[in-house]
Amino acid sequence: MVDPGLLERLGVALAIGLLLGVERHWRERDAAPGKRAAGLRTFGLIGLAGGVAAAVSPDPAWLGLALLSVIGPLAWFERAEAAASGSVSVTTVVAASLTFALGALAVLGEVVAAAAAAVGAVALLALRERLHGFVSRLT
Fold first, then answer.
1. pLDDT tens digits, one per residue of 61-119
2. Start-to-end C-alpha separation, the chain
3. Which residues neighbour 113 within 8 Å (Cβ) at sequence distance 6 or greater?
4. Which of 61, 113, 120, 139 lies at 20 to 30 Å from 130 by C-alpha?
């Protein structure tokens, strides 16, 4: 029998990933296909992967290994992309790690906290230019 509560929590994990993915995709929306990395679909899958990992994880160490299996290839890809473009940023890897963790948190039962943290993360990511401007004006 399928646990309807688990299905709902997995839906929230997916929604968290999609929410963060919209923000990341929006930032690169004008890039040509094949030139965008880690957007809506990727982040949706990362949130869902965190949820599934939490649902099947026998212990927290296994959940950590699942996180590394998702984030490791993304970090490698981001490093290669930085070398090719000359632009260095770790934000996508950090946002993806958070997405995985929030998906896991939602499935583990902290749905409201996970959703609230996702909204806060999206706000922080969306305020990039304002935050950088604020810091540049500090004396």
1. 899 999 999 999 988 888 888 887 777 788 888 999 999 999 999 999 999 999 999 99
2. 61
3. 105
4. 113
> Distance between CA 115 and CA 83 in Å, rounded?
34
- CA–CA separation, 9 and 61 (whole Å): 21
CB neighbour burial string for 39-71, b if at least 16 within 10 angstroms, e if fewer: bbebbbbbbbbbbbbbeebeeeeebeebbeebb
Residue that the structure tokens 């997405």 belong to? 99
Q: What is the pTM of this model?
A: 0.86
- Tokens standing for residue 87: 């632009």
Confidence of residue 36 (pLDDT cuts 50, 70, 90): low
